[in-house]
Amino acid sequence: MALMFFWNLSRNINDVLIPHLKRACQLTDFQSSLVQSAFFGAYFLMALPAGWYIQKKGYRMGIITGLFISALGAFLFFPAAETRIYPLFLLALFVMAAGFAMLEVTASPYITKLGDPEGASSRLSMAAAIGSLGATIAPSLAALLLLHEVDVPQATIEAFTQVELEAFLSSEADLVKPPYLILGGILALTAITVVFIKLPKIKDEQGGDKKPLIDILRFRHTLYGIGAEFFYIGAEIGIVSFIIRYAKWFRIPELTEQKSAQFITAYMALVLIGRLLGVYILKRYKPQHVLAFSSISAFTMVTAAIFTNGYFSLACLSAVGLFTSIIYPIIFSLSMQDLKEYTKTGSSVFLLGIVGGAIVPPVMGYISDTAGIKYAFIVPLICYVYLLFFAMEGYKVKIKEA
């Protein structure tokens, strides 16, 4: 479960990295949102290879390999900052996320199979709560390290001479070096630690036939679950990616970028609270009913954010975190129902849905650049409509005969 902490910490630094690189590399909203495309695109591309790898090597080697790959990605931020070439930043994020993809394909089914199947959602919720602690810390920590206490006005930047501009932008890029070098060291040290400890084996690692990926097409509820993962991840990443940009749109003098990041922290803190409550809630109520309630509540909060302004609007966006906090363990466990020997394969295919985090933010960025940032938040509303469908119908187990 400690792995959940590290990759959520790393993933949620991206929400602050977007406005930082937007300034350091002089990007549009669409271009800066490609940070999430690189990160979550790696999840999409690595999902199936990661599944094949753990089928052959097992969960333990999946964890070790994932940690080393993610550490390499973190170390690549140093040459990216030295050169200030935006595609190199994207490459570093891609490599780091490829390692995290390996970890996620490995860890989620590992947790579900370590105990009573009836408690799978609850255990995943607890693991996710630990991950949420890292996600909660990340925005505030990243804001202190990457953003200024007092914003540098765009007019000031435009008034720089070419030499002054280059020096300013280089100093901005250099800010990413210490945090990512430290993160890389932590990930590498964790990998070395796992090499020397013994993890418990679970039944489906004791041999048995390996099932072809195409067989997952027989499980319709799993396919709908992949769609649910797409829209859940897309909505969450889209919202937190643009909270700082949205806060700046209101032009409240005292609301600097660094202070705006606190709304992301609030979002993630509410996710943490929700996941802790989820351990209890999911023992009392059916997961699909909780998912329906969560989807409707999130839709309501985003709608309120669109039609209001200022601090109240931003508070509504932060509140979405509470209502969506336990969606992931619900859709994962519902999607894995009755897969049995297909669980490893199913979990790797399920991870394909994470590409929503690569697609939704650029769509929102494009809408923000062309029509205005408020209109961009219509996209998460569409996502929550699909999640409501999955809660009402899509989760039902329907398996085609082989």
UniProtKB/TrEMBL annotation:
Transmembrane domains' residue ranges: 34-54, 61-79, 85-103, 124-147, 180-200, 221-244, 264-282, 289-306, 312-336, 348-367, 373-392
Origin species: Echinicola rosea
Protein keywords: Cell inner membrane, Cell membrane, Membrane, Sugar transport, Transmembrane, Transmembrane helix, Transport
Purpose of the protein: Intake of glucose and galactose.
Localization of this protein: Cell inner membrane
Its membrane topology: Multi-pass membrane protein
Family assignment from sequence similarity: Belongs to the major facilitator superfamily. FHS transporter (TC 2.A.1.7) family.
UniProt superkingdom: Bacteria
InterPro entries xrefs: Glc/Gal_transptr_bac, Lfuc_symporter_FucP, MFS, MFS_trans_sf, MFS_TsgA-like
Protein name: MFS transporter
Family matches, as Gene3D superfamilies: MFS general substrate transporter like domains
